[in-house]
Each structure stands twice: as C-alpha cells, then as structure tokens.
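Budget justification aside, the reviewers requested a transparent look at the raw inputs and outputs of the sequence design task funded under Objective 1. We therefore reproduce one unedited record. The lines immediately below are the structure tokens for a 293-residue chain.
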C-alpha cells in the first residue's frame, strides 16, 4: 500500500516564547523522546514535505500544559507558506474578548476555521459562553476542530473530553461542522456512534497510532458502524511526526496478522490516508480563497 498522506488536518504551531516552564515539567508522561524539538513555521513546513496541505493552529493551554500561543503566529505561517498551510483560530471562551479575537482571526487574519480544547480550558461544550462561537462559525460556514479525549495534563478535567458531549451541540447547530480530534480516545466508541448519528460530525486520527491495540480497535469499530469514511488523517505535530504517523497507520493490522481477528480493510486504510478535509468541512466553499472583505 502507498504511504503518502494528502492532508495533515491537525498541526500545532508555536514559537519558543510561547513555551512556559510547565510544558517541560509535564513531558514525563508524554512521548518526550519522540517529540519534535520545535513547532515554529519553518519546522512545520519542513515536516510537512510529504503532505500536500496542512491545517495549522496554535494552542492557548498555558495553565494546562504550558503552551500559550497566538493567532498572529498561525496567520504569519499561512502568509509565508500559502500553498501548504490552512490556518485555524484558537477559541478560549474564558476570555472576555473571545469573540473579538475570533472575529479578528477570521476577518482580519484570514483564518479558515477554529480550534477548541474543552478539557484544556476547563469549559464544557454546553457552556453558554460558547454559544456565540457556535453561532458565528455556523453562520460563516467555518469548521470547529475540538480536542475530544483524555490528556496528560493534570489541570484538565477528564470528563470535559468525552465525545458524548458533542451530540447535543451538533443537534442544536446542525449546519456547524464539528471535528472530533483524536477520535475521542479512550472513549472512541462514543465518538464513533455520535459521528454515525450526526451528519455534521467528523473524526480524525491524530496521535493515535502509537497505541496500536487501541488504534486497531478504533478502525475495526468504525468499519462495523460504517463511519470509516468520516475519518481524516492527522498527526498532532509535534507530539507525533508525519512519517511515523503514516507508517503506524499503514501497519494497523500487524497485531492480528495470522489470527482469525478481523482486519481493517485496505480501502479504509488508504481512504483515511488520502482524505481531504478541504472537500468536506466547508460545505462547498473553498477555504483557500482570500478572506472576506
């Protein structure tokens, strides 16, 4: 099977000044030895040599994991490498100027979607502070990528990462494209059944291959529930690299070779690898067009 991804839909960007001491303190429970040393624009561009496109966004997880980035950094990377990067704004509903920052990111900086981590910011998806965010994104046909699943950070309430919380929002805002990053791990069964029921909910597989038994079960279950066509490829760079993510994805069946266990189909493996969010997440609008005046 061929091993070149089309789009990495989950790429984090930050500069050295965005890294707080807490980040290095927490790396003991992360794949610290495998992490890329930097996540600036030039590092990202070099890393993404083997993908056609990459969706990039910063993190505002200062009090959770010690990364406090800004949308200007994302926008600068897109301006420098417009043929490679599509930028998303970050949403932190705890801030009084949350909507002002979102509008600035979209309308002034030309970013094409939004990212939010409920578990990292300690804000439930049903929190009223997020309602204007959902309304704005739905109105302007902009996707929302959400970190759904657990994390290594101590200051991040686990319950807020559960994929089951996505469904009420998806039903209330049926024209809002919602993307569950990391397939809701370890609650991937919840993520899969929600994505099956709700046509505006999608999944992506970033930072999952290095738990091979869990990843294998995810894809088998996704095929059984007939939602494998709603899964997109991502890495979560710098927490996982492109080449290792591709290799791990292609080798998803290695644990069950020679056994009667079900195999993930070659069609599913290749479809995820070649998945193109630019054809699905914007409902027909081209995200590479210039920002609205």
């Amino acid at each position: 099977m061929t091993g070149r991804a089309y789009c990495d839909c989950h790429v984090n960007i930050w500069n050295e000044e965005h890294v707080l001491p807490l980040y290095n303190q927490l790396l003991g429970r992360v794949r610290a030895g495998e992490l890329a040393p930097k996540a600036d624009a030039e590092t990202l561009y070099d890393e993404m040599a083997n993908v056609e496109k990459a969706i990039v966004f910063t993190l505002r997880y200062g009090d959770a994991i010690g990364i406090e980035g800004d949308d200007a950094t994302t926008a600068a990377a897109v301006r420098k490498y417009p043929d490679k990067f599509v930028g998303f704004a970050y949403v932190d509903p705890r801030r009084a100027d949350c909507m002002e920052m979102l509008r600035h990111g979209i309308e002034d900086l030309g970013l094409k979607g939004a990212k939010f981590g409920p578990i990292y910011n300690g804000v439930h998806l049903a929190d009223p502070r997020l309602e204007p965010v959902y309304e704005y994104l739905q109105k302007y046909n902009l996707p929302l990528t959400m970190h759904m699943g657990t994390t290594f950070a101590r200051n991040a309430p686990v319950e807020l990462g559960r994929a089951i919380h996505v469904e009420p929002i998806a039903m209330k805002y049926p024209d809002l494209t919602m993307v569950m990053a990391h397939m809701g791990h370890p609650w991937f069964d919840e993520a899969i059944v929600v994505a099956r029921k709700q046509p505006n909910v999608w999944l992506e597989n970033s930072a999952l291959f290095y738990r091979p038994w869990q990843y294998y079960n995810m894809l088998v279950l996704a095929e059984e529930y007939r939602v494998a066509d709603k899964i997109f490829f991502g890495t979560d760079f710098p927490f996982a690299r492109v080449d290792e993510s591709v290799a791990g994805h292609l080798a998803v069946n290695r644990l069950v070779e020679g056994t009667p266990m079900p195999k993930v189909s070659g069609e599913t493996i290749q479809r995820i690898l070649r998945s193109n969010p630019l054809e699905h997440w914007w409902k027909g609008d081209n995200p590479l067009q210039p920002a609205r005046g």
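The longest strand covers residues 7-12. The mean pLDDT is 94. Computational costs for records of this kind are itemized in the attached budget.
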